[in-house]
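Today's session is about reading a structure prediction critically. Students often jump straight to the picture, but the first step is always the sequence itself: look for stretches that repeat, for charged clusters, for runs of hydrophobic residues. Only then move on to the predicted structure, which in these notes is written as discrete structure tokens rather than atom positions. Here is the chain we will use throughout the hour.
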Amino acid sequence: MEIEEKNLIKKIRSSQACIKDGYQLYTANFRRIFRHTWALAIIFALITATASALPVLVSPTLVLPAFLLEVLSVILFLWTANRLLRKRQFLQPIEEAGINGWIRHLGMVILVGIVCLLIVSVLTLFTALPTIIMMAANWESQIGVIGGDPVGMPGYVTWLSIGAFLIAGFLQAYVWLTVICPFHLVHASIACQEKDRKEFNKKNYEKKNLIH
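Below is the predicted structure for this chain, in token form.
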């Protein structure tokens, strides 16, 4: 059963509530999110598979470029997915909280970010396990070749590695997407608090003017 998101954004939450409600929103609406983002996830998988293949199948010296490509692809993927989900009206529009609003609630943002990254890290251990195994096997083979040993990996392992990288990249796309809903609710909570603060300050200002 899909959770209606409209009423969720009109509520002030703690960091814990943003995380809990955000993940509930994601899991309850996963099929809807998947319908909107599967094509984007395939593109992300192709890019991350390329990044994984560079140091493993091309040259170990390409670790840094592969890492930078991976980080850039995650940032662009989350930014594009967020815009896409807003365009498809899965994520409802929220009033801008302003830079000062985000700074005032920086502790909340950092706390939610740390927890989300920890959850992503744990989920990555499961989704990327086949990729890690294939990477270790390929690296061991390359080290053996450098040491003078004959190539111990069959030719089909290269294609098997690419397949593992693609599948892991596709799954990883939906692991990273888990951070969008909690941060969407963080944004909504900050916007609500800033709105209440402005209304409170406005009422106080009007009262002072009446007294004077």
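Discussion point for the tutorial: Residues 12-211 form one domain.
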